[in-house]
């Protein structure tokens, strides 16, 4: 066998083990008994030790030196394997194992603290997570910016400063649009009680409507909805609330966007570095365009209105136009995942600035709750009422995902570019969505984005699909047009 064959065979086994670790994570957030948390932490640490050893195996460096594929796919495989190897060897094995152990345990501590509204119970383990992640970041950065090293895990070839520049461009127009919208009368709110079993049934219908293949996937419930897996095993979760079925439906559509990306990747790339989404920003572009530009469009909400009437009978909304306004209502709220399109990115900017300060050592964990509450009051104009609506609402920091949050807004920016190109490519889009047919949109996204997996760098993926350099103007123009029309601005 050639060096390239040896390398890719070794990589496939490593990727398969990584998928097993991912399945343990899925189990932990869905059906694992609460009392198993400490054992699961040891299991996650053990498999991380094996993965770290394989990813830093000296033979990988030798194979990389000798391999010389001539085709585009082979060169892309080497690019991604080399990037992973060079990052892995900078992090000591005992540190990688410790992070896996602590973050697995911290996730359970966070969930209980969130349920108990008890920040103090969570801060000690969060302090440990932050210390370990800063140590890891310093090892990766080798004298450079620690937060940049964190971002590289989720959005390769992007820095915190570049993200901050994009956010600085977005913030003034978002704040102005929010102020104008909130000055207008609010649309009719959804009221009443909605059977949770019927929500899950309609949720499954929505998932398949957006192309989710249940033959290689499944839908479960979790506190914090997520998508997990790749290739022929891609799972999603959602959540239900008797008074807010939109939370279930749009969480499902959002996670289907992630899952459709993984299911849509060229099967030839399975269990290779190209067999996963190229970045979390590109991943988020799929979930956000599914959820918002498609799922919350006037055309699609007209179809969804009929589906809800079939499922729940008369639920207090009289017509499709009123329903469209209700689905897209802009209102005060604390929860990022429930935020409307106008305010969502402001929630991300808050988290971006706080986690960047944590990684820089400018903010201490014990001061996080006060810093969060002060920033929220300054940005949104009202005070956080409970910790679960404040710094305890997201799972990310408990599991060490520092540098992840800004990719949500990058995903929105990318989705804005893709949607502009999609509308030009599929002129009958609204007619199709109005009939509950998403295939024009999802086929275009699969062909232009999803099938490529990690073949191209993130910004190149978006540029090739949309025909433009990624930037915030298409997103901001879409938001101003949509909500200007909804609120008569």
TrEMBL record:
Catalytic activity: Release of a C-terminal amino acid with broad specificity, except for -Pro
Pfam families linked: Peptidase_M32
Record GO terms (molecular function): metal ion binding; metallocarboxypeptidase activity
Gene Ontology biological process terms from the UniProt entry: proteolysis
Keywords associated with the record: Carboxypeptidase, Hydrolase, Metal-binding, Metalloprotease, Protease, Zinc
Enzyme class: hydrolase
Cofactor note (record): Binds 1 zinc ion per subunit.
Binding site for Zn(2+): 254, 258, 284
Active site: 255
Family: Belongs to the peptidase M32 family.
Matching PANTHER family: CARBOXYPEPTIDASE 1, METAL-DEPENDENT CARBOXYPEPTIDASE
Protein name: Metal-dependent carboxypeptidase
Lineage: Bacteria, Pseudomonadati, Pseudomonadota, Alphaproteobacteria, Rhodobacterales
């Amino acid at each position: 066998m050639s060096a390239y064959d040896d390398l890719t065979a070794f990589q496939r086994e490593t990727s398969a083990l990584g998928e097993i670790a991912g399945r343990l994570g899925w189990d932990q957030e869905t059906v694992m008994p609460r009392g198993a948390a400490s054992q699961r932490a040891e299991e996650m640490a053990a498999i991380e030790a094996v993965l770290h050893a394989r990813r830093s195996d000296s033979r990988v460096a030798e194979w990389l030196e000798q391999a010389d594929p001539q085709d585009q796919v082979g060169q892309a495989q080497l690019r991604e394997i080399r990037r992973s190897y060079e990052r892995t060897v900078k992090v000591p094995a005992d540190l990688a194992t410790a992070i896996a152990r602590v973050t697995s345990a911290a996730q359970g501590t966070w969930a209980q603290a969130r349920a108990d509204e008890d920040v103090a119970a969570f801060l000690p383990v969060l302090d440990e997570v932050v210390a370990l992640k800063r140590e890891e970041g310093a090892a990766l950065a080798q004298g450079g910016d620690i937060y940049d090293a964190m971002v590289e895990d989720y959005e390769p070839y992007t820095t915190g400063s570049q993200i901050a520049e994009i956010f600085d461009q977005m913030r003034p127009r978002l704040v102005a649009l929010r102020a104008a919208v909130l000055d207008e009368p609010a649309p009719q709110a959804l009221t009443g009680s909605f059977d949770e079993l019927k929500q899950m049934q309609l949720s499954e219908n929505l998932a398949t409507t957006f192309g989710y293949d249940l033959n290689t996937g499944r839908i479960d419930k979790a506190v914090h909805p997520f998508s997990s897996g790749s290739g022929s095993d891609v799972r999603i979760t959602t959540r239900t609330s008797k008074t807010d079925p939109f939370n279930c439906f749009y969480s499902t559509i959002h996670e289907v966007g992630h899952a459709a990306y993984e299911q849509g990747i060229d099967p030839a790339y399975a269990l290779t570095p190209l067999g996963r989404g190229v970045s979390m920003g590109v991943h988020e572009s799929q979930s956000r365009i599914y959820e918002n530009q498609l799922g919350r469009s006037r055309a699609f909400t007209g179809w969804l209105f009929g589906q809800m009437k079939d499922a729940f009978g008369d639920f207090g909304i009289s017509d499709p136009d009123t329903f469209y306004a209700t689905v897209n209502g802009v209102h005060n709220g604390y929860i990022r995942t429930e935020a409307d399109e106008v305010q969502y990115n402001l929630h991300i900017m808050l988290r971006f600035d706080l986690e960047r300060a944590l990684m820089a050592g400018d903010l201490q964990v014990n001061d996080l709750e006060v810093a969060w509450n002060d920033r929220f009051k300054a940005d949104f104009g009202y005070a956080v009422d409970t910790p679960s609506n404040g710094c305890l609402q997201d799972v990310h920091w408990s599991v060490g995902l520092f540098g992840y949050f800004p990719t949500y807004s990058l995903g929105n920016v990318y989705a804005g570019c893709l949607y502009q190109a999609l509308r030009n490519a599929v002129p009958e889009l609204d007619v199709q969505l109005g009939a509950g047919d998403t295939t024009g949109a999802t086929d275009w996204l699969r062909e232009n984005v999803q099938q490529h997996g990690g073949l191209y760098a993130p910004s190149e993926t978006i540029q090739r699909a949309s025909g433009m350099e990624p930037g915030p103007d298409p997103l901001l123009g879409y938001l101003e047009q949509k909500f200007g029309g909804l609120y008569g601005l």
